[in-house]
Amino acid sequence: MPELTRRNLLAGAAATGAFVATASFAQPDMVEAELDLSGKSILITGCSTGFGRLGAEYYARLGATVFATMRNTPRPEAEELEALAKSEGLDIRVMRLDVLDDNEVREAVSQAENELGGALDVLINNAGLSFGGPIEIQDMEATKLTFDTNVYGPHRLSRAVLPAMRAARSGLIINITSQLGRVVVPAYGQYSGTKFALEAMSEQMAYELVPHGVDVAIIEPGGYPTMIWSNANKNALDLLSRADGTHTSGYPELVAQLGRRTGGGSTDPMDVPRAIAMIIAMPAGTRPLRTAVHPGAKPQIAINDLTAEVQVGWLGNSPFGPWVKAVYD
Fold this sequence. Notes:
By secondary structure, the protein is of the alpha/beta class.
């Protein structure tokens, strides 16, 4: 019998892994029928709209217990999700959680762990925001809020769930980044900076958590028609209302685009929850570190492949080698 290694397990899951990597999801009914998340507990941030809301419903329909968190409850989105859960008999527990608030993070995670009687199985760091525009016009208010939401928020949540996950020697942290966490387009404000930071933090955590049996997975969506575009337009207009010509005068063409961006076209936002569900269902230790999700171009794949080669080549024979190889091999 061959030795049971991560590489062998990955080979055994090759069909699933390849399907996740392409993320075109032409047969969603088949995928949904094959997946079973019964017994899994999942906490998701940013569930009022977008990938978070879609995922909360989807994972619960696959049998999971879902802690669907959002800011500023009570609010209509929370009531709608609670009503849907009741009507369909889904185990969705709506909770108040602002990723900027240390106390709300601690309280929500503690409540979830108390209800479960132990560690969460999965944390999905989904909440995020964007301001458009050249870097020079990003004032410190916008810059701090973007980093606090997109980087420090996932850090807060990860620190909150990890003690129990490490004690259980199991768990999965999924961080939703972006294509723009690996490639750069001008005039997207600090969004790429935050997503690059989240990519690096996630990879470092993946190595450090190997000895504790906790996996880290990064989801890199391309453009999808979610509320992030309209929210980003509002944020950009708010930013412009505070700005003056000292900084904006140098970028008339880029500034003219602000407040009018749309994206995603006719793509299906359900691609992202489907990819996440497939990763959750994979055996621990076999999950890919990075998954590019979009039916169209995925320019970051070449960078992801090169990163894996460089990391293993650089650190593979160092004291960190076993951790790095466990993540990439």
